[in-house]
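Inputs:
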Amino acid sequence: MTVRQYQKKEALLKVSNVSLRYDCLVLRDISFEIDDIIREGVTQGQIVSLIGRSGIGKTCLFRILAGLIKPTTGTVLIDHDQHPVRAGDVGVVYQNYILFNHRTIYDNLRISLERSQTPPGGSIDAVIKEYAAEFSLTEHLKKYPQQLSGGQRQRVSIIQQVLNGNRFVLLDEPFSGLDAIMVDKVKQLLVKIANMHEDNTFVIVSHNIDHSLAISDSAFIIAKEEGKEGAVVKESINLIDMGFAWDPDVIRQQEFIDFCASIKDKI
Amino acid sequence: MAIQEFFSPLKVISKRTFFILAFVEGVMALLIWQLTAGELIPTPARVATAIIGILGTDYFYSNLVQSLALIAEGMGISIAIALLVAYLSLIPVFKPIAEFVIKCRYLTLTGLIFFFTLITSNGHNLKLSLLVFGIVPFFVTSLLSVIDSINVQEYEMCRTLRMNSWRALLEVVIIGRFDLVLEVIRQNFAIAWIMITAVEGISMSEGGLGTMLIKSNKFINIDNAFAILTIVFLFGIFFDYLLGVIRGWLFPYTKLQLLS
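Outputs:
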C-alpha cells in the first residue's frame, strides 16, 4: 500500500441533486464530483467507479451522465467550462458492445473518427492503423463485428469512442461476461487509455467491486437507504488517499481484499 | 445416424442428411400421389407430361413474360411505397398512417375490385393496383417489425457519436437494416407471387400464368392446371433461392456467425 502525491484541481464532471422518477423514484438527490487529478511528471487520467447492486438504477444514472435522458431534477455539468452535458459529450461503451454490424471494424472506427471534433493529427487511415496496431486489432480491421470475440468487440467500442474525441467515456459493466484473463487485459487497456491524456475520464458502472476498484482512483457507492425510496450516493471513496490507486497488484493485497469485502456489506 | 434418431425431437441433423430425408420423403409423396390418384386428379406422370407440353409452346413463354413483368412492376412499386411508409413511421406525425396501412391487411380485395375498376383506366392498371394494394400492408407489417426490433442502444450510440436523428435513422434503420429489407422482400415475394395468379384471373386481357390457369380450369383441363400450378410453385422456389443468394452476396455479414 503506497500513498502517492497528487493534487485535485477543478471539477471535470459535477452531478448535483439528480433525481429520476418514472413510476416510482429511481434516483434521489445524487450528487458527486469528479476532479482533475494532477501528478507531477505523469499524464494522469481519471478512472471512477459507480458501484451498486443490479437493478439499483445504475443504468439510468449512466444514461443521465451521457446526456441521453434528462433527470427529473438536478444537473450534470461537464468539462473544464462546466457546461450542461449533451448527448455526444460523453462516450458510451455498452455491456453488449454495440457496434454497427453492417460495417467492418475499419469502417466502425472511420465513421467515429470522421465525426470527431478534435481529430488526432495524420490521415484517417494512418490514425486507424496506428490505434489498431496499438490495441492488437490490425488483423481484424477488415472483419465485421460478428466475427470478433466479446473482448475484441469491447476494445473496438472503447477505441471508437476515444477516436470520436470523447475525453469522458462511460463503461457499463465492462467486466461482465469476460474470463479472468480477459478481465485483466481489459483493466490494463482502460488504465492505458485513461492515461493517454490528462483529461481522459473513464466512469465504470459496475456491480463487480474488486475489479472496478482495483483500477479506480475514486468510487461512489450507489445504494438505497433503509425505508426510503430511490438510490442515493451512500459513500464516496478516495482510493488514492487509501493507498489503493495506481497499483497493478492491488487486487492481491489482503487489505484491499478486506476493503472490498466491507463494501459488499454496504450495497 | 440411426434411423430412430430421425424421430427424436431437437435432434440436429447435417445439411446432407436433411437433403437425403427431403429426397426420400419427396419420392414417397410422389409414389403415394401416383398410386392414389383417380381419374379426376391427374397422376404425377400425367402432370409431368403436361409440363413438357406446356414448356414446348410459345403461348406459355409469352404468358410467363407477362406475369414476370407484372410482378416486377408490382413489387417495385410496392417496395417503394412500403419503405416510404415504414421509414416515415419513425416520424411521429406519420405513425398513425403506418398503423392504418398495417390494418389494411384485413381488407378483403374482393370487395374492392369494383372500386379499383372505376378508378383505373385499363386492365393492366387494375391488376397493378390490386397487386400493390394487396402486398403493401404485408410489406409494411414486416418492415415495421424489423424497425421495432432495433435495440434502442444503437440509436443512443449514434447520438454519442454526435449524429443527429436523421443521420441515426440513415445509419441504423436504412443502411444498417437493408439486409433485412431484402429478407422481408424475399418472404413477402411469396404473397405477391400467389396474388399474381389471382389478379390475372380478374383481368385476363393481357394474359399471364393466372389467365392460363383460369382457362385450364374453365375447360376442365386438369392436367394443364396442375402443370401450371407446379410451374408457378417451382418458379416461386427459384425466386426465393435467388433472393437468398443475392442477399448473401450483397451483405456478406448476414452469413457470419456470432463468435460469443
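Remarks. Chain A has two domains: 7-89+166-264, 96-165. Chain A has a mean pLDDT of 91.
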